[in-house]
Write a structure and sequence with these properties.
The protein is an all-alpha fold. Helices cover 83% and strands 0% of the residues.
Length: 184
């Protein structure tokens, strides 16, 4: 897959989530609040750091039990080959698109409508893509729960948007670094 196509697909997919979230919010009269800027940025960056460290631990240090081994295989066989050659600009575009699109939909409208647990489980389910991705889907559901808790705690979406965007940027940058390290 060409890199520009990957970025284009990510932007189109995430823009679709934004449209769904905005239409849903209007139809159901759901207020999408940003929350405090200072609190949102501070808490969002802190949460991204914690989630990023947890992800690094899963990939590099956690015991090699079945679920963690499955996440590591997915990382090596799918994520590294797909995202290893993207540029820093691609990292930024994909991260911002995912942070906005997914947070507006999952924490902005699904969570107020259905609750934290259902929104987090759906978030995890939609990140699964075939055999060997159950553990990854569970990990993403846990992250969704953390992001949803941020939205509740900060009374808005800015903290989870910042956390999601920064986490994705760190994860994709790590994939780029690890891919290039393995090639040299």
């Amino acid at each position: 897959m060409q890199l520009h196509l990957l970025v284009m697909l990510a932007v189109i997919g995430e823009a679709t989530l934004v449209v769904i979230a905005v239409v849903w919010a209007r139809l159901r009269d759901i207020s999408i609040l940003s929350g405090s800027v200072v609190l949102g940025v501070t808490v969002g960056l802190f949460a991204a750091s914690v989630l990023g460290l947890a992800n690094w631990y899963l990939l590099r240090r956690a015991p090699d039990v079945a679920g963690i081994a499955a996440i590591r295989r997915l990382y090596q066989k799918s994520l590294k080959p797909v995202f290893g050659r993207i540029s820093i600009l691609d990292v930024m575009i994909i991260s911002v698109a995912a942070g906005l699109g997914e947070e507006l939909l999952f924490r902005g409208v699904l969570q107020p409508e259905w609750g934290l647990l259902p929104a987090s489980l759906i978030f995890g389910l939609l990140h699964m893509g075939g055999s060997g991705t159950l553990a990854f889907g569970c990990w993403v559901a846990v992250m969704g729960g953390a992001l949803g808790s941020l939205a509740t705690w900060t009374d808005g979406l800015l903290a989870p948007i910042i956390a999601h965007t920064a986490y994705d940027a760190a994860a994709l940058t790590y994939i780029r670094w690890d891919f290039r390290r393995a090639e040299s």
